[in-house]
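Notes from the pairing session

We agreed to fold both candidates in a single pass and log them together. This is the raw record for the first candidate, unedited. Please don't reformat it; downstream parsing expects exactly this layout.

Candidate A
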Amino acid sequence: MGSKAEPIARILDQPTAQTLIVSWCDARSGHYGYQTWRAVVACVPGICVLTGRSIKVGDAIYKPRVLGSAPANADAMICAKSVGTIKQRN
């Protein structure tokens, strides 16, 4: 009780240097089995959902692509520096 469930995010593929395919599951924002994330520059500080590292304004990140209405996890971020490290472990 009272514990904060963290989202489970996993990189499935990196079709281009500018995109990731991510599997996302979270009790609050739902499940996206095959979600495209795009490379952008962070406009606000945040936390990498894969590593828990701090993200600063200006850092290279990936965010869920928004087509039409924003997905529930639209504010989530993956630090671009973490992508190579995570892919090597998978």
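Candidate B (folded immediately after A)
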Amino acid sequence: MEGMTAADLAVELSALNFAQTFHIMPIFQERSDKVSMSLRRVRTSIRDLEEQGQLSVEKYQRASRQKRQRLEPHLRRKLAYAEEALAELKNLKADLEMKLACSIAVCEMVLKHLESLADKELAKENA
């Protein structure tokens, strides 16, 4: 069910009975949890990379004139690398945020379908 539109997913869900829907719910929750953990790791990596860059700049600013001359080329390379890595991580973060929003929406859709099936079963038993 990966890569389906919401309408396609709704059609697929409508064909499932209570037991089948109950069975797939943990699968979608697990996918959502994995995306959430990945997003958390990416956010931590972004924060760490930004902190490392800031610490390197502060170290350079505190250094003596002679030491600054030695540190400058290394600092420039390090900051250029960090800037590239940050751009990639921020793109990944945006993608993961989108996936997480979709995963949550899918879980909610499956849960609502499960609730409607449970209501139908309850109505049948009460009738």
